[in-house]
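Handout, section B. The chain below has 369 residues.
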Amino acid sequence: MNHHSVAEFDSIPEVYKIQAAKLRMLFMDRSVGFNISTYLDCLSTPWSSSLSSCKRYEHKDPLYNSDPKEVRWERVWDRSNWRYEFWPTGCSEDVTCFINFIEPRLDSFDVIGCQFSYLAVTPGARIADPTTGFFGNQTSGNKANTYANFGRLHPDKKLIWWTTSLARGIGTLESESFNAQMRDFASKNNIYLFDVADILSHDPDGRPCFDNRDGVSYQTENYPDDGVDLAAICPHYTTETEGGHLGSASAGGVRVAKAFWVLMAKLAGWKGISTKTKEIKNSGLLIYPNPAANYFYIRNLFSASNDQKITLTIQTLEGKTLMTKVLQNQDQNNETEYRIPLQNIPNGYYLIDLLKDGTHYLHKQVICR
C-alpha cells in the first residue's frame, strides 16, 4: 500500500469493508501510531458528527491548506477490533520486543505488525546499515530475518511490514536507505507492506515532498538549501517544523487511515480495483458539473486519433454498480468531450470509475435534481 492506494478507499465494497472490520488486528508503534489510531477512530464515526479535529483542512500556513474533500468520508468504518499498542516500557524500535509482547496473545489476533518511527532513522542510526543493520544477514536480534521467521512460524497470522514514519527534519540518508531496503525486501518476498513513508511524503496531488533543508521558509524554520532532496513528511500533514506528528492538520492522518482500510480490505480478500489507479483531479481529465442533474461531461479523455476502448462505471459508495458502459462515438458531445446521461441514476453520492488503457481514473460525483 502506498500513496496511490488512498484513491481506492471509496471503492471498497461493503462486503469487504465488513470482513475487514471483523479481522482482529494489533499494530505497535510510537506516537505517530497513536495519531494513526486516532484518525481510524475518526473514520469510525459519521463524517457529519465527527470531531472537528478529524476534518481540519486549513493549515497554520495557508499555502498548505488541503481541499476539504481530503478530510471527508462516506459510510462508517468500524475499527473496534483493531488495536494500537505503544512499544513496551524500556523497549522500542525492536522486532524482538514486539514478538515477546505478541506471542502470548497470538490467539487474540488475526493481523499483527509493528512500525519503526522516524526516531529509528535519525542521522547516524545503524538500523539502515546494509551489512549490520535490520536487513543484514544475521538471524537473531532486531533483524528482518527474525521478523520473517516469526511470520513463517505462524502462517495462520497475517504479518504487516511497515516503512518508517517521517518528519520534516527526517528525511535522512538513513531513512532513505532503510525504506528503500524495506521496499526491495517486500518485492522479493511477497510480504504485506504498508508504505506509510510513501503516503506521508506525497502531497494530496501526488507530488513528492522533501526535507526542510531546502531554503524554503516555513513558520519559524528557514534552513539553507543543502542541495539534497530526501523524502520527508509533507508540510500539508503536520504543523511541526522538525517533527512529523499528524495533529492539527487532518489531511495526512485521514489519508493514512484510508490507505490502512484499503490494506485491511485486501487482507480480507478484496482484489482492489487495479494496480494502476489515479484520481481524476491528478490526471488532467475533467468531469463536470458537480453536482450534476441529468448529464455530466467528461473532457480531455481522448484525442481525435485515439480510438481505444474506454469503460465507464458508476457505483454507489457501498460498491453497488448502477451503470457500466463502453463509451461509443454517439456519446461524444464534441471532439474533446463525452456527454453521459444520468436520467436513470437517482440522487446521491457516487464513485465514477473510468478504465482506460489498464488504468482506473476515479472521481466522486454528486447527482442532485
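Note. The chain has two domains: 3-267, 277-367. Compare this with the example in section A.
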